[in-house]
Amino acid sequence: MAITLGTNIPAFISRMYLNSTNTSLTETMERLSSGKKINKAGDDAAGLVISENMEALVRGSKQAMANIQTAESFLTVAEDGMVSISDHLQRMNDLLVNMANDTNDVESRTAAVREIIERIDEINRLAESTNFNGRTMLDGSTDEIYVQLGPDETETSYIEISSALTDCHTEALDVELPAVLNPDALKYNDGTDKIAIPNPDGTGYVDSETGAPVVSIVDPSGYDSAFEPTNENCRAYMEKVQAAISALSTRRGMLGAYENRMQSSYDSMSTRIESLESAKSVYVDTDIAEESTNFVQQQIMQQINISILSNANSLQQSALALLGG
After folding, report:
1. CA dist., res. 303 & res. 21, Å (int)
2. Closest CA to 181 of 120, 242, 222, 127
3. Which residue, 197, 291, 235, is CA-closest to 102?
4. Burial of 36 by CB count in 10 Å (0-12 exposed, 13-18 middle, 19+ buried)?
5. Burial grade of 145 (CB within 10 A; 0-12, 13-18, 19 or more)
6. What whole-number distance in Å separates Cα of residue 212 and Cα of residue 66?
7. pTM for the full model?
8. Please, which residues bridge with residue 160 across strands?
9. For 263-300, what is each residue's pLDDT tens digit?
């Protein structure tokens, strides 16, 4: 090989390999330090795209699992309200079954109706007050409720659950106390079959059918009582109460079905996340054993290249020997 002073080819080649080794060593150290195989897009452009898409699915799935848990709590609160209302209806049915028995006198039937009135008020209060995060559930005002239980926008990633809810006001359940079973009901004194009942707001009387104020009744004295707790009237009301119990049970069954479906989705999502995390790991997680081997190899190569570069730099000194220097 010619000995020249202008260009030190061996040194140039040694420096090139040393730079390449230093770059590889830096990347290996970065992977070992971060635990990530991809630290910048240039490390693996295609792998970055795939891993980021998987990361979106993983994070979306985790949030969907949180959504499911919140929705299950929502349904539990709704069911608790229905259970309480159902308990009141069951007690009303017990009282009516008892009232339909001829061994009871008017006084005992009146006491039973008084309790029914209190339970009606409590049912309506529960219908108004049962809520989750300020959103009422049993007052009939609930719009469509969608639960996002998947990580994307597809139709299979959400369900609508408002169909399991229902208006639980006694009027909606058709268990309002019949006028003839209201101890305070009065017959009109105009010879008609109309009945006036106390205004729910505590002021005066209203027509039992229209709810319009009956201004002519100021003092109930002189009016005949419309209270008729006969077996027939008790049984007719009993039928409505039992129908409401059945309807409410059906709604609770729907709630249970949604809860089971969500639990199944939760379990499925958990399995899916595990699979996605495993697949993503192939692209982004550092293989410590492999990179440790590379690290040792690259350190040795670095030392070799430094030594060779040092020797290459000394080659040109041989020119002095030729000049007798």
Report:
1. 10
2. 120
3. 235
4. middle
5. middle
6. 50
7. 0.73
8. 146
9. 998 998 888 888 888 887 776 666 667 667 776 777 77
Residues 6 or more apart whose Cβ sits within 8 Å of residue 90: 245
Q: What structural domains and CATH numbers belong to the chain?
A: 47-176+231-282 (1.20.1330.10), 184-226 (no CATH)
Q: pLDDT digit string (tens) for 158-210?
A: 899 888 899 999 999 999 999 999 999 999 877 788 899 988 887 889 999 89
User: Distance (Å, rounded) from C-alpha 197 to C-alpha 188?
Assistant: 10
Token pair belonging to 276 = 């996605």
